[in-house]
Amino acid sequence: MKNVKLTIAYDGTNYSGWQRQNNARTIQYEIEKALKKILKKDIAIHGSGRTDAGVHALGQAASFIEDFTLPTHKIPVVINNVLPKDIVINSAEEMDMDFHARYCAKGKKYIYKIYNDSIRNPIYRNYSWFINEDINLKKIIEASKYFIGQHDFKSFMAAGSNIKDTIRTIYSINIYRKDKFIIIEYEGNGFLYKMVRIITATLIDINFNKISIKDLEDIIKSKDRSKAGPTAPAQGLYLAEVYY
């Protein structure tokens, strides 16, 4: 038996998220279907976590245990000829038998992209959040500091999650401008349901004076979703890396 870790990139535009669903096209379903084709067995993969419909990945991780003869390092070359063009397996490696892509993850990095210009660019419509008003980088960088460290992030978790432990640690938030994009990079030990998108939209609300920076501490302590900003669009979010 082999325990295999896959590193995966995908364009989430045409999918109903990561997790397998009845009557919906998902990333997990397409990968499992392709694995069955190349390994001639039913394979169930376990992702490091779910991504929602429209969310992209540069470095999603998944694992599965199975007995097969194909050399593990050849899986990407073979499977990428079978997968849809918007999903790619970047690497496959054998791990210890107790490895699990979800339960062994020590942290994650997410990237959120905002296209900030007076006129939208249709090329980037599925890969960024278009905002045509000025963004004060200094202001949102200052606001982002309130999220660093260990907090109860319940105010920034969307409805629909049954997670009870809402304490997470954000190690860093790096915000910078690159051409016409505002890039926000988040690193932490884990993130709640839609947490990155809600924090991002909260920072933008602060930019437009809909929320005051001085109220952020109270918003975090309130554990009240209604006090935080809305949820930023899915298409600007990328799961960049999973740390083990």
TrEMBL record:
A Gene Ontology molecular function term for this protein is: RNA binding
Q: Which residues form the active site?
A: 52
- What's the EC number here? 5.4.99.12
List each copy of the Pseudouridine synthase I TruA alpha/beta domain by range. 8-103, 143-244
Uppermost EC category: isomerase
Write out the function statement from the record.
Formation of pseudouridine at positions 38, 39 and 40 in the anticodon stem and loop of transfer RNAs.
Q: What is this protein called?
A: tRNA pseudouridine synthase A
Q: From which source organism is this entry?
A: Paramaledivibacter caminithermalis (strain DSM 15212 / CIP 107654 / DViRD3) (Clostridium caminithermale)
